[in-house]
Amino acid sequence: MGEESKSTSDIDVGTQNITVLGTPEQESLPPSWFTPKRLLVIFCVINLLNYVDRGAIASNGVNGSQKVCNKNGVCTAGSGIQGDFNLTNFEDGVLSSAFMVGLLVASPIFASLAKRVNPFRLVGVGLSVWTVAALCCGLSFNFLSISICRMLVGVGEASFISLAAPFIDDNAPVSQKNAWLGMFYMCIPSGVAFGYVYGGVVGTHIGWRAAFFGEAILMTPFAVLGFVMKPLHMKGFSHADSKKALKTTETTGSEDEVVSNSKDGSSCSIWSNLTTFGRDMKELLKEKVFVVNVLGYVAYNFVIGAYSYWGPKAGYSIYNMTNADMKFGGITILCGILGTLAGGFILDYMTSTLSNAFKLLSVATFCGAICCFGAFCFKNVWGFYVLFAIGELLVFATQGPVNFVCLHSVKPSLRPLSMAMSTVAIHIFGDVPSSPLVGKMQDHLHNWRTTTLILTSVLFLAAVIWFIGIFLHSVDRFDEESDEQPTPIVDKPTPLLEEKTKEPVGSVA
């Protein structure tokens, strides 16, 4: 921690050292309770709630079932969203993907705004939109209304998905970056699994609308937190959060700021933002390591997205599982937590390099694909449980490494955009089409075993793509200087690890 304190306490600008912290006023302030570990915990809980929502809408208690009629014309009423709104499997699949539309549109916007607005405040805005949208889902009255509400849920989630991982990467100890990312992404499988259980219990006993009301209540405190807490600084960015900062930034001659303050600043600023976005996208797409990583992630997410939505229904149909929500949820919670954590710790143990990350991605995905494919071949349900659990354990080990590559294959100022475009790609080409396509395939085949085997085979493609990444020339760019980072401002928000540094300039703990 001593070397870290030294490197983060002083910022060298030319021949002058500027001390970011350590003024008499700052030294007199009590230590902040908002430590890096607490930041991680808060972000993990928010991420968990995001994915609880996805699991809940896929659960049999919330999603429900279609109306069924026998040969004599006697019909049994449907249940949940599907029954109340009389949805086909295809429409049901579209509903699962509707929130992705908002996510895909809003993610690049939030990533671009991070250059002008403090990212921590953007997270607060996004979570507020998410909370209101979840509440409106419970008040929806037909397929169109709930689809629109699900799109708004995606808009709210976009800010958090794009910006949370860079914050964690900035503040995690150097030797534990992948472990911290693993803890954060562990909330994806465990959140979906908790969502199965939560949706099953609440939807069955109180009603599917109550499940969405509960989500909104749980997210409200975190939405408020994003506005009331002191904003944090993100590596690669310096935001004009005060008049003094704004004045200093303008003196650097930044083209974007000069244009935005001109007489026709509004229209020029929009054009400047679009130009900057286009330039950043061009630079991002030139990074072969990033592109190959995302291509593998797309194939991977195509399978995982369909698993998360159709898993309980497939298990109920193939193996006549009672309480399929609970069983799939239990397996996913256990294997998702262990697998995701293991992936992060293993990569830290191997030494966190981009090449090692690709090795772990390809091997874990290939072995996991074999186990999951074999599981759906079993006719015995216990054989399915064992192989599928091992498969999920291996498949979820990819969560930390794949996001490590996204964050470290690009320069710091491009990290929010890299996370945003990774999210856009894996959804628009991955789980957005996979859920309705699998539903359409099942409507045609009427055989869940065949459908799941075809779906699982796509994991082999992901393993092959990530295997190619091992042989690419790769450079970790985390410590690369950003050409967009202006002269440091003394009173700007700083990373949490800098706030914890109280030693005098040049001291080593």
TrEMBL record:
TM region positions: 94-113, 120-144, 150-168, 180-198, 210-229, 289-310, 330-350, 357-376, 382-402, 414-430, 450-472
Recorded topology in the membrane: Multi-pass membrane protein
GO cellular component, one term: membrane
Listed SUPFAM superfamilies: MFS general substrate transporter
Region spans: Disordered: 480-509
Domain of life: Eukaryota
InterPro entries: MFS, MFS_dom, MFS_spinster-like, MFS_trans_sf
Pfam families from the UniProt entry: MFS_1
Domain Major facilitator superfamily (MFS) profile: residue ranges: 39-475
Swiss-Prot/TrEMBL keywords: Membrane, Transmembrane, Transmembrane helix, Transport
Subcellular location: Membrane
GO molecular function: transmembrane transporter activity
PANTHER family reported in the protein's UniProt record: SPHINGOLIPID TRANSPORTER SPINSTER HOMOLOG 2-RELATED, SPINSTER
Similarity field: Belongs to the major facilitator superfamily. Phosphate:H(+) symporter (TC 2.A.1.9) family.
Official protein name in the record: Transporter
